[in-house]
Design a protein that fits this description.
Elements (H helix, E strand, L loop, with lengths): L3 E3 L9 E3 L4 E6 L15 E7 L8 H10 L4 E2 L2 E6 L5 H20 L12 H20 L7
Antiparallel strand pairs: 1-2, 3-4, 4-6, 5-6
Length: about 150
């Protein structure tokens, strides 16, 4: 198996190359259709990469990837599982492509926020909340002796 190449994108202008030794592949039996073949072939592929120790990422990329993929990580390990095809070879290629896509998107810096003006409705609601709050505070005052 060759090194995994991540195409260039924002955050990785020259792309990334993940050495084969840092990728962990596990194979197991896949569920779903396949007849008798499904009971004998380990066509499901789990491809894992430890983002904390990989040499493919520099520190800013590592920080962005860990932050962007936090929901998908187990510790600092990113795992992609594929069992779409009956062929192990196709599942391996799909898993590698998915991992590359995830990493390319994860190392990209966040898009800058475009400042927008508050809508008319949001301004009206804010002023209405302020008036309501002022009324509550006015009602807390000591009554006049007049």
């Amino acid at each position: 198996m060759d090194d995994l190449r991540v195409p260039p994108g924002p955050g990785a202008s020259r792309g990334l190359v993940i050495p084969t030794g840092e990728l962990l592949e596990r194979f197991s039996r896949s569920s779903g259709p396949g007849g008798q073949h499904v009971n004998t072939a380990d066509s499901r592929v789990q491809l894992s990469l430890d983002l904390a120790t990989t040499t493919a990422l520099d520190e800013p990329q590592r920080t962005r990837a860990l932050q962007a993929l936090a929901a998908r990580l187990s510790g600092s390990v990113l795992t992609v599982a594929v069992e779409e095809n009956r062929s192990q070879r196709r599942n391996r290629a799909t898993a590698r492509q998915r991992l590359a896509d995830l990493l390319r998107d994860a190392v990209a810096p966040p898009a800058p926020r475009r400042p927008t003006r508050p809508t008319l409705g949001s301004r009206r609601r804010r002023l209405q909340r302020e008036r309501r709050r002022a009324e509550i505070k006015r009602n807390r005052r000591r009554p006049d002796l007049d």
